[in-house]
Amino acid sequence: MRKHVFLGLLLVYFGLPLLAALLYSVATRWTDTALPDGYTLSHWLNVFTKPDVVAALGRSLVLSAVVVVIEIALVVPAAYWSVVRNPRIGSVIQTISVIPFAIPWVVVGAGIQLVTKSVAPQLFGTFWLLAASTAAIAFPFMYRAVESSLLAAGAVQLSEAAATCGAGPMQTLVKVIVPAIRGGVVSGALLVIATAMNEFALAKILVGVSFETLPLWSARQFVSRTLGDPNALAVVTIFTFGLLFALSALVVWLGRGRVSASMATATVQKGTSS
Amino acid sequence: MTSPAPEPVAAGGAISPPRAAAATRFSPRRFLSDWGPALPLLLFTLATLVLPALMLVHDTFALPDGSYGFEHITKVAANPVDRQAIGGSLALGLVQATIATAIGAPAAWLITKMRLGGRAFWLSLMNVASNFAGIGLAFGFVALIGSTGMLTLIIKALFGIDDNPFPSTGSFSGMNIVYLYFNVPMFVLLTLPALSVLKSDWQEAAEVCKATRRQFWRYVGIPVLAPFVVAGWLLIFTWTIGVYAVAYAVAASPGAQKLITLQIGTTLETSVFGLGRAAVLSVLLMLLAVGATVLYRLSLKRAARWL
Q: Which of A175, B57, B74, B241 would give a disulfide with B93, using CB separation of 3.0 to 4.6 Å?
């Protein structure tokens, strides 16, 4: 009995805020009654015609795509070489991975800002600075996914076989290894996209208004609630939530044991709150 | 798993002299063939993660006139707003970690005891909850318990009261209500795999030996699970003091709780000169995070005795 009350209360606690946001996104008018006066889908249809929302969504998508390309280009060769040739690469990378895992991203952003100020002030507030910083905090997710699928695919044996057949290292990587680890790259990419789509701290500190991503748009609407459009914010909130949930569910489904559910959640968790 | 000794398999033309030679004499060619493909990633992370961390430590002690000293630190220590922020972040971290543990540990235990269907349902609920975070979460709570929130209006109508029965989401207790939404699922998802360490045969064995349930928990259950629970507590503490998006959103209301991350954010955005202050606060968060992570690793190592 006590058990059911406890679980019931948890269910209510986790259900209600989501329900409130959801109702807000389909409410016609909702001021001083417990439930909306009426329901409509017009906010959902209107939001994606608003130029500022479409632009912010587009920026977030471009950022995600660029970050994924950076991650694949940097991580795949490093993880491959670590598995087939020099395991010490893996241990150095693991040590560096502790930084984005433990240190708050707002602190990472502060450090990058200080370095930029003294080394390359022309990069201040640019898209590339944001893309590089986002790639830096998200790289452990890609590395872990790629490394585990390299091990699962037997990259060492595959490389030996390819070398026996006379393939060079580059040829082996492109023609043999990459096709064999596609699944890991896709899982890693989904986790990276989830991070980049919802990352707030770095975007706020490094680029601010000059490159308004979807989370920055939401924050601006939220902070200026009286001027902003709460129904549009509700739609974007539920949309972002649905997107993140779909991405993490997809990662769990693709991994089926290899990438654990908690890892997928941890990414999104750090990405959204930090 | 990989073998500890590097195998020169894929390097088509690369020759590999005995390991001893490499250890005694540095050869650029050997270095490149060992590390080459990883160099872009290593240099990239060095520039974007390691160097910024060192820069923050440097700027904590560097004074405008080019010398080094503790002036920035004493300035922060003397500033009442910064002190409020430091106290607020620490208190929030402690309270969150403790409540998330107190709710999450029994919840995780109940979930492991459920049948397949119930477990799948609760796991997806925890997944759903942990995906509802950031600015959206703050919005959800304002729509629920804000001054015209859904629950606020229901309770007002039910009990005929005029004032909002809930704290403002930007206050310390308000933040605690909001933060639990992602910290409890996080704790559950982190400790759930560990709970399977406590095998059900042990419980049966204890029953056969006529141990009471209390005795089982006192002498077997709690000692085995304690390191995992401590590890979860430490992780929740570390992540809570580093939260920025939700804090930024809820702190928009007047009279909001001050936090270290918020101070860093405002300092970086508003002043070009006060960066020493941001560096001090950042280094403080860094030290707390690194300390908690070291303890986290230690307690997981201790927990591994039973695996």
A: B241
CA-to-CA distance for B111 and A32, rounded, in angstroms?
A: 38
Model pLDDT for residues B16-55, shown as the tens digit of each residue: 444 544 456 678 888 888 888 888 999 999 989 999 999 8
Torsion of CA B294, B295, B297, B299, to 10 degrees: 170
B297 Cα to chain A: minimum distance (Å): 11
CB-based burial, B215-226: b 16+ in 10 Å, e otherwise:
ebbeebbeebbe
Q: What is the pTM of this model?
A: 0.83
Q: Please write the tens of the pLDDT for every residue from B91-100.
A: 999 999 999 9
Say whether residue A94 is in contact with chain B using an 8 A CB cutoff.
no
ipTM score of the complex? 0.84
- Residue A259's pLDDT is 44
Check B275 against A248: CB less than 8 A apart: no
Residue B31: its chain A contacts at CB < 8 A?
Answer: none
Tokens for B82, please give them.
């910064």
Nearest residue to B265 via CA among B254, B275, B250, B255: B275
For A224, the closest chain B residue by CA position comes to B252
Contact B7 A84 (CB under 8 A): yes
- Tell me which of A272 and B132 has the higher pLDDT: B132
Residue B167 has a pLDDT of 83
